[in-house]
Amino acid sequence: MKQEIETIHIYHTNDIHSHFENWPKISRLLRDRRQLHTRAGEAVFMFDIGDHVDRSHPFTEGTKGKGNIQLLNEAGYDAITIGNNEGITMSKEALSALYTDAEFDVVLGNLQDEEGKIPLWATPSLIYETAKGTKIGVIGATALYTQFYEKLGWIISPPREQLREAASRLASEVDLIVCLSHMGLPEDERLALESPHIDIILGAHTHHLLMEGKVVGNALLAATGKYGAYTGHVTIQFDLSQKHIVEKQADVYPSETLPVVQSDIAQVNELIAAGNEAMQEPVFYNPEPLKQNLFAPSPLSSFFGRALIAYSDADCALFNAGIFLGSLAEGWVTKADLHSLLPHPINLCVITLDGAELLDVYELSLNEEWPEIKVRGLGFRGELMGAMIHERLYRNRHGKLFAGNREVIAGESYTLATLDMFTFGFFFPSLQHADKEYYMPELIRDIAGNYGQRYFAE
User: How far does Cα 77 stand from its chain's mean position?
Assistant: First the structure.
């Protein structure tokens, strides 16, 4: 019997994080490639693996993420899964409305509402069929941020286990299985070894770049790094008569090598302008300039520290001066101003600590090397850490530490208002397992705006 081979193309992106500087080129590449393969009679699919949305960009913030969905529609994506930026930096209502106008499928199997039901805008798996009858099962899942999802009214389940079960259920119905995984490379590798049914794992979350893919077990892993620096391309040669994959390979297209047209820069600037225009709503009137100082306390840090304490009723506050990406001028402060000042998708967290623990945290925060450290990830969208700012957390002239009006004593409890980025164990290991409460869905810029409204209205 003569062997008949079908060529199937899969294009994929991940962790764009609203970095639109390369988006015009990526979108054009995807549209051109779909047209090219369709003319050749070859199957083609396009997937995004989450964190396309990032509220640090004014276009995303101003359009509540719906602008990102329109960009995905225009590029012709077939399906996506969500990342943690879609899942936990948006309110439950905003996420539930995000995909209303989507012209693609949202494949997500490990998120349920409080009644244990998959949200209406998502499906745990689906099956695509090529023109030649090859059935492709697609499954998807996102990273496990249990506390954050619970605070927002969602139930998140372990993604790897869910994907393994979904692949087992689909195996008898399809010819091959593609997994959209926003779990990170280590989890993808474990999944590949645990589930021989999965043929392709398109990865994300850990921002890993696999230039030529990586074979683990039966699966080919592929990923494109971050910020749209690359677009991924997986090519599958499928034997139609024997119903098995003959060959699968992965490569990437560097965005820097893609052709540029004159309108690309203008298109990116238009996105920024549209976002800023949508955020011109005034929030509060600022009677005097609140200036930033990256390496010392400032009028701006004092205002922000008071805002955290007033919102949470905590004893004291701790945060880094690098969180401010500018100053606040005198006059009306708009949503755009607050977004420019605090673009980070970061939440307030209140931690309950024993006096001895609070003293250790305070001492650690005095590290003289920290202000110059470059911070990457954790929701932080600035560059340098800056000085650690202590609001109502201080030593008196006798060297005793106070939280508000109370001396810090071992055996007594105190509440510390801080940023969620400091609760993951990277700078303050003891905070990772401490008793804490996250304030969601409010971001820190929302809390600053709320305080400005009340404080300057008095």
Answer: 19
